[in-house]
Amino acid sequence: MSLKVGILCGALVGSLACVAMAQEAPPDRIEMVKQSFAKSQAALRQYEWIQTVGLSLGGEEKVKQQYTCYYGAEGKLQKVPVAADAPEEKKRGLRGKAVESKKAELQASLKSAMALLDQYTPVDPARIQAAKAAGNVSVSVPDTAGLLRVTIKDYLKPGDQVEVVVDGAKNTLQGVSISSFLEDKSPVVAKVSYSALPDSTIYPASQTLDLKAQDLSVSVMSSGYKKHSQ
Questions:
Q1: Which of 30, 139, 168, 215 stands 20 to 30 A from 74 (CA)?
Q2: pTM
């Protein structure tokens, strides 16, 4: 082999090695998602905000409540009702009992749905890491819009799934889709859309949760963020 050919071969091997190294070191999307949620969770502990929750039956809103939300000293999310619904005149007789029974059933469904949603929102970085260690996390290639999906199986309970949508170019969170179920095994599908505060803290701006078996849907809007007074 001539010296010139040897140099060319060496250069080619070096170039291929560089390409291989570049292919072996793509952005760690899973770690980015973990860090983004962890950073925003810490930042949100400085804020309080208004959460508006609505429950609809067959597409008709039946219950609407507002809460002032903030994180307490122990790091747990606190929800204080802003104002109770205006008391309705109770109907008498069997019809009145049926109305009260249905209202109590809806309130119980709303409480159960919100308790489940609060377990998934925000996504817990520690649970992402546990799922990753168990081999239950996968990352898609970017689609035509540049979005990729981090899919987490068995996130909270066996058989559930959380999908985090990320802007592949900007490495910013776009939303979360959740597929889970209640204690009675009723399927639940939820979606969370994220927005950013002026200091770049991401927060769940809107959430929707559908319980198709009961023909119920829950909508949650978060707004009015301001630094917590305590």
A1: 30
A2: 0.75
